[in-house]
Design the sequence.
């Protein structure tokens, strides 16, 4: 193989790698952009946004989860909760449809603590504290 052929192959592989990297960073979009594009915004306060849907909560939860897979989920009779790297999404019943809440991680933990606190932690600085003294499991 000539030097020129090697350079063409290397550039082609590098170009494909760059395209994959750019898609991974920008192509998928985050949960907030997905919610903006697919649901009707009802209100917003800082980083907290409320959307509405005419679909039932389970259908909305399934739709969101399929489009943007969460890091973790929690199902509760009060609603469906999805945890993302920086956001918490809650889907609750509202009349015949649904209400979708998205909060940044800290506010989401504070707002939904009764439903996700024992499962996802408190979101506070003590979450990483593992206790002191001798013993296994540390």
Sequence:
């Amino acid at each position: 193989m000539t030097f020129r052929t090697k350079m063409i192959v290397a550039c082609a592989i590098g170009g494909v790698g760059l395209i994959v990297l750019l898609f991974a960073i920008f192509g998928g979009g985050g949960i907030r952009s997905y919610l903006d594009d697919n649901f009707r915004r009802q209100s917003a306060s800082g980083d907290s946004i409320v959307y509405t849907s005419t679909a039932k909560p389970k259908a909305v939860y399934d739709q969101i989860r399929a489009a943007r897979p969460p890091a973790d989920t929690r199902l509760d009779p009060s609603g469906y909760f999805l945890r993302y790297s920086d956001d918490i999404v809650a889907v609750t019943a509202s009349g015949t449809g649904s209400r979708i809440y998205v909060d940044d991680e800290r506010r989401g933990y504070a707002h939904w603590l009764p439903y996700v606190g024992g499962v996802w932690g408190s979101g506070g600085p003590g979450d990483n504290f593992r206790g002191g003294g001798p013993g296994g499991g540390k």
Summary: The radius of gyration is 21 Å. Confidence is low (pLDDT under 50) at residues 125-130.
